[in-house]
Amino acid sequence: MRPADLAREHGISTQAVRNYEQDGFLPPAERTPSGYRVYTEVHAAALRAFLALVAAYGHATAGGIMTAVHDGDVGRALTLVDRGHLRLLRDRETLDAVRQAIGHLTEPVPEPAAADWSIGELAHRLGVTAATVRAWERAGILVPARDPATGYRVFEAADVRDAELTHLLRRGGYPLAHIATVVGQVRTAGGTESLAAALGTWQEKLTARGVAMLDAAGLLSAYLTSRP
Fold first, then answer.
1. pLDDT (0 to 100) of residue 209
2. Which pLDDT band, with edges at 50, 70 and 90, does 74 fall under?
3. Domains and CATH numbers, the chain
4. Is the dihedral of CA 174, 178, 184, 189 positive or negative?
């Protein structure tokens, strides 16, 4: 087989095929006396596996898996696969946590006596200590503004929402690093209503990634079987 034969199946350039071989993502090709590369069905299986891995895990991880295989370290390759599945599982858990938590955040935030909430007022609302709220801030979960005159923290309605979400997730046993990711998703979406509307798309992306991992696993297994 020529480089063009491999490239044609996937709609890529022949130079891309040569680059993948040079980077170690494909096994080395034999050469004709005139220097032309000669590929086999083993190379075709490697290319199918690599491109499927890119779709499932990204280019860097896919390249790491294939180079590990070609280095003879299948264990390292499978460790990278396992880590990808672990990341997907954590993303699913994050999605579930957000779904459960936003259901408790539909009531509007009542206004305190002042225009903004102080740390004491917020702590009293949640039934926690001010030190706990400061710990959430140090973890990057809460980002309150500061009163320019006094330097005191001021919490707006969105900050109260984030604090309530944090409180719910902490009661559920989630670590602060995980909560920071969830609250960041809420903040990026512009609020719980916007996030709720985006959950369907988020779920579809996770499902597509899981299916891509299944496809990649099958093609990687086929390649490992085809190798001498």
1. 94
2. very high
3. 3-82+214-226 (1.10.1660.10), 96-206 (1.10.1660.10)
4. negative
